[in-house]
Amino acid sequence: MxxxxxxxxxxxxxxxxxxxxxxEQCISLGMKxxxxxxxxxxxxxMEEEIFLLDFDTYLPALHTLRQExxxxxQVNIGxxxxxxxxxxxxxxxxxxxxxxxxxxxxxxxxxxxxxYDPTFFQGKTEQEIYQHFFEVTLKRVQSxxxxxxxxxxxxxxxxxxxxxxxxxxxxxxxxxxxxxxTLIQKGKALECNTAGFRYHLGQPNPCQDILTRYxxxxxxxxxxxxxxxxxxxxxxxxPYIQSLLETCGFRYLTTYHHRRPTPVLLERV
Length: 269
Ligand SMILES: [Zn+2]
Ligand SMILES: [Zn+2]
Known about the structure:
By secondary structure, the chain is an alpha/beta fold.
């Protein structure tokens, strides 16, 4: 099975699953490698900051597991970093000294609130919210360099009251194309996140039309992750995604080691 490069463990405030359990699930699915990417959202604005990683505990624990499982699977160490402009200097300093394989940059908090909070959608139209989400994402992608792959680009759609019923790439093309072009120009990858299927979108995040558009614009670096917080979600819909990515025009998936991209030929996995 294709390598899963977006996996959460009990080091994340919203997962109870030990890292060992996640690794063993990857082995049982026949993966050759995986990447654990726990949450680190600095100064999110939440009353209780539950999405902060203690790197002094996290990194040694994962290094120990990497050693322990080295004959069965390659355990890569990553982080899912919350992108926000007001913490630009903090993120730059953090990343400059962080020895990890892979960094997902994600837009979780917009104006200090996460779309999973139902009040996020109050008082505005869905269109206004989606547009604002993409505009904020563009500014962050333009201004920040502290990541390798942009996580779940249309994340906001997962939590909207109507999900993706009134959403399409084409409706927001003028906001999304500049994001894709900026990623390509900066040599950053785009993530294909299969949690969208679990949220009943019938699509990954971002949706297939965005993946196709990224490829059309010349984008080649695509990373893949299930965003699993529990073991049954590891590698979710990966066999289907393999053919979907080929349909979108990709021949390679990208994995990261020491923050350098490595191509993985899709047909051979
Ligand atoms: Zn995320
Ligand atoms: Zn995640």
